Amino acid sequence: MALEATIAREGNPQSGPWLRSREWDLTYIILSISLVAVPLIMHYQLGMPALYVNLLVALVVGGPHMYSTYTVSFLEPNFVRRYPRYAAIAFLIPIVVIYLAVANLTLLLTMFFFWASIHVLHQIGFIVDCYRERGGRREPIWSRLLDYAVVFSSLYPIATYRFIHGEVILEGRDLATMVPAFFKIDLLIWLSGAAFGVSLVLFIGRTIKEFLDSQVNVPKTMLISLTAIVAFYVPSIENIEVAFQGMNTWHSLQYLALIWYMNKLRKDRGEIGNNLVRDVSGEGRTRQFYFFNLGMTVAAGAVIGGLALITGAFGPSGVLRLEQVYYIVVLSSLLVHYYIDHFLFTRVGAIVERAPASF
């Protein structure tokens, strides 16, 4: 794909500030936030163990969303040619993952947890940028920073409290043990709460003024508001792993929709350089796109099984434990996905016509 030429040419001039259309955005981008409740219902109402919830979410949406990243990066020959250094650095990530999975799995999970939280919020920030561009109204820098402040501070007031007090447990590991003691102070709880509180009050005030001036960007305001409410609440849920999977379910579906749409636009302009990706992209190919990424998820599961057999992870005296094998495969792909997306999420031109050429 000619990355710097990817400028959205959406065929519906009536879509206004919406990315594709009001119905599509509400279904896949904004109101899909209701999916946060699905893992919670599976665990608390249906009695499904957290491990099964994690694996089911990973199979159905988590894995497919992760591997869809590669349809716009390493499966796209123009990406590697155009950004060889950036692409090359990505291969260092699995080396770090393998080392930490063997030497200090708790540290690896701590890094994953924090990076995951930033990644989820960065995606929201990217969509907010897209809505701002689609709205066509130039906003002052303070207004843009306020949007980011609300989004990026919303997840942390309660999460910081639970982290400092040893209540963030993944795979039976207290992640706070990997953080220096001078970071585990109550002052951080007050600071994170104040940052969110002040940002939220200013955001509400600005929104009221925009409403009175008939300048409200409806999808942007909806997305920020719902994110702030849900992201603030989710860390208060007792089982932090299941709560995390709730956010992950929404995030993953949202991401799949974004990548599908990017590939649709790329295909419409003849910018996809991989025949296989081209075949599963575009209008009328939604199922093919999903099952292609689901297939890569299943293939990753087969790699986990094969590596476990080779290392004896299914037995008591293997070279690696099964959880180490699992995280080596999953986090190698997942952290590369995060790395690529920090590049991708600065390219509003992948979605929005008014944005500067980027990809």
Textual characterization of the structure:
The structure is a single chain. The protein has 15 helices and two strands. It has helices spanning 22-30, 37-45, 50-68, 77-82, 84-90, 92-103, 105-135, 141-153, 156-164, 186-212, 218-233, 240-268, 275-279, 286-311, 322-344; strands spanning 169-170, 173-174. It has a two-stranded antiparallel ribbon with strand order 1-2. Strand 1 (169-170) and strand 2 form a beta hairpin. The longest helix has 31 residues, at 105-135. The chain is globular, with a radius of gyration of 21 Å.
Summarize the structure.
With 359 residues, this protein is mainly α.
Order of H and E elements: HHHHHHHHHEEHHHHHH
- Largest sheet entry: 2 strands, antiparallel
Principal-axis shape equals globular
Strand order of the largest sheet: 1-2
Unreliable stretches covering 5 or more consecutive residues? 1-14
Please state the CA-atom Rg, rounded to the nearest Å: 21 Å
Helix content: 55-70%
User: Counting H and I runs of at least 4 residues, what is the number of helices?
Assistant: 15
Tell how many strands the DSSP assignment holds: 2
SS-derived structural category:
mainly alpha
Mean pLDDT: 90
Distance between the termini: 8 Å
Percent strand equals under 5%
